[in-house]
Write a structure and sequence with these properties.
It contains 20 helices and 17 strands. Strands 2-4-3-9-11-10-16-17-15-13-14 form an eleven-stranded mixed β-sheet, with helices on both faces. Strands 1-12 form a two-stranded parallel ribbon. A two-stranded antiparallel sheet has the order 5-6. Helices cover 37% and strands 14% of the residues. α14 packs across α16. The chain has 597 residues and is α/β, with parallel strands linked by helices. It has two domains: 50 residues; 405 residues, Alpha-Beta Complex (Amidase signature (AS) enzymes), CATH 3.90.1300.10.
Length: 597
């Protein structure tokens, strides 16, 4: 008799299983010979479980059982769920290496849809940068668009610029606490090489010779990469992260590893709190706290931050810089700390919109080490007209906090530039429930540190900090996780509908719903300074901490306020063209923090 095909075998087996399920069970519950193994046949594992255990657990998952069901569940829990413990306890313990991502990947492009431009086109501005300033501070605070032209034309050497930034790090970092590790030896060597190459006619592009700093969750070969956590202070990677390697290839000069809140939360790390250059009584926000503060204060030419749920947008808005969060999958995260595989993104933090695009062009593209990174095109023309672009806005959001008059003025400025304002809506859904995905994935990413209690050593030990969240997340329902993932797809479908109506959205930067929605769907964002507000207006809950020693500077009462564009998937170019036009129209982007000018 010929051997059955695999397909025929699976078909027969499926009908066999269906038939077995429909047949009456043996009265004595003895498995039918030849039947597949049933649940609850494994050896018991884990601690004893009683009906009282289930009665208490029901409060966590909001799923009440009656007495009979509770007794049945408690009676076989240790057998039916034995496999739950097998991977992390007992003789078959299997630690999962950090580099292993989940098998399932989030794809922001929905089935049947295409996204992004058809080809790569990058046209930078041709503006004359003007004469080189006589002041080191003016040079340090200039945007990359100017710095690169001065270096390209050899009016400024990379070595001089590097020394300016290293001196400012030494002078200002004690007040800002934004640098975890300065890298002067590497920076000076890279600067010398850049100047030699440029003098020989080998100009690599706009980042050649520009000093930069990276959030200290990007691996750097032979240099500590601490993730902001005390127990990783001596963690020294053997290889560079993909983004670091690409910036090295572009000729950029690494001067510092910049602070992040421990394990990418908030602005508190093992060296203290990173402060806002505009308001030294206030933290710079997180978790890309160091990139925000260092870029605003002119300690680096540009920086690289990361975002999972607002960590580029928030410090960019607070510190008055430009933050570009690319489409999920555009920039590879190989060699970067994982917080949440399906949400993490890396992006530029700069002093102008065009700067952000110059950096994005250098770091975009897939890498084999990041399964979520994909090929994509980047189409940006700094001279493109924005007249006729459809800018969506949420009428209710612009009338209430956290929106301010600055947000409303920016919306009017878009209209003055010839863009068409289009009111849009999204369903009133409980979007915060999608955060279950972040809680579950982050707790998985830091399982080892949670189970061995290293997270107990972190400075932040409050209810909404990672230690408590990681512990709580061990008790999340897997069913609720799956339902949150399904809701994420529903949300992506709604965003796809909205983005068919407009070319981009303009939203208040810290609007909770859009922070959650756009991070979950993977849409790109661009945050840029749009004006200034008084401290009392900008920080309704702000108060100085009497226990925190203040710097010698008298903080201003006037602080920058940013707005945020949300773009279509892989269409950062259109988003940046609108941002560049708005930046020029408003004319407020280049004013530096007074204490650092």
């Amino acid at each position: 008799m010929p051997e059955k095909s695999r397909r025929q075998f699976l078909t027969d087996a499926s009908f066999t299983l269906l038939g077995a399920a429909a047949m009456p069970q043996n009265p004595d519950q003895t498995p039918t010979p030849g039947a597949p193994p049933a649940f609850a046949t494994a050896p018991a594992a884990g601690p004893e479980v009683s009906t009282a255990t289930f009665a208490e657990a029901e409060k966590l998952v909001q799923f009440p059982l009656n007495a009979k069901d509770r007794a049945e569940a408690a009676g076989n829990w240790r057998q039916s769920m034995a496999a739950l413990y097998e991977r992390r306890t007992g003789p078959r313990l299997l630690p999962i290496p950090d580099a292993i991502a989940p098998y399932s990947n989030w794809n922001p492009v929905l089935p049947g849809q295409s996204a992004g431009p058809a080809a790569d086109v990058f046209v930078r501005s041709t503006n004359d940068p003007g004469p080189l300033p006589s002041s080191d501070a003016e040079i340090a605070l200039a945007p990359v668009t100017k710095l690169s032209r001065w270096i390209e034309t050899r009016k400024l050497t990379s070595e001089r610029l590097t020394e300016i930034y290293l001196a400012r790090i030494a002078r200002y970092n004690p007040a800002l606490r934004c640098v975890i590790t300065a890298t002067p030896e590497i920076a000076r060597e890279q600067a010398r090489q850049a100047d030699a190459e440029i003098a020989a006619g080998h100009y690599r592009g706009p980042l050649h010779g520009i000093p930069w700093g990276g959030k200290d969750l990007l691996d750097t070969a032979g240099i500590p990469t601490t993730w902001g956590a005390d127990f990783y202070r001596n963690r020294i990677p053997a290889r560079d992260a993909a983004v670091v390697a690409r910036l090295h290839a572009a000729g950029a000069v690494m001067v510092a590893k910049l602070s992040l809140g421990a394990l990418a939360l908030n602005d508190i790390w093992f060296g203290g709190e990173t402060m806002n250059p505009w308001l030294l009584e206030e933290g710079s926000s997180g978790s890309s706290a160091g990139p925000g503060a260092a870029t605003a204060a002119g300690l680096v030419g540009f920086s690289i931050g990361s975002e999972t749920g607002g960590s580029i947008i928030s410090p960019s808005m607070r510190c008055g810089i430009t933050g570009l969060r690319p489409t999920f999958g555009r920039v590879p995260r190989t060699g970067a700390m994982t917080l949440c595989w399906s949400l993490d993104k890396l992006g530029p933090m700069t002093r102008s919109v065009e700067d952000a695009m110059l950096v994005l062009a250098a770091i975009t593209g897939p890498d084999a080490g990041d399964l979520s990174s994909v090929p994509s095109h980047l189409d940006f023309d700094a001279s493109a007209a924005v007249k006729g672009l459809r800018v969506g806005y949420f009428p209710g959001w612009v009338k209430e906090a956290p929106a301010t008059d600055v947000d409303r003025h920016a919306l009017a400025a878009c209209q003055n530039l010839g863009m068409t304002l289009v009111p849009v809506t999204l369903p009133d859904w409980p979007y915060s429930s999608i955060q279950v995905i972040l809680f579950a994935e982050s707790a998985a990413a830091f399982e080892a540190e949670t189970l061995d209690h290293r997270i107990d050593e972190l400075r932040m030990q409050v209810p909404d900090a990672w230690p408590n969240t990681f512990r709580q997340s061990r008790f999340l329902s897997a069913v609720d996780y799956v339902q949150a993932d399904r809701m994420r797809r529903m949300t992506a479908l709604e965003m796809a509908r909205v983005m068919k109506e407009v070319d981009l959205l303009l939203v208040p930067s810290l609007r909770d719903e859009m922070l959650t929605i756009s991070n979950a769907t993977g849409h790109p964002s661009l945050t840029l300074r749009a004006g200034f507000v008084e401290v009392s207006e900008a920080r309704s809950d702000w108060a100085p901490d009497p226990a925190r020693p203040l710097a010698k500077f008298s903080p201003p009462r006037r602080v920058p306020h940013g707005v945020t564009f949300i773009g279509r998937l892989f269409d950062e170019g259109t988003m940046a063209q609108a941002g560049l036009a708005l930046e020029r129209e408003l004319g407020v982007a280049q004013e530096p923090p007074p204490q650092f000018a």
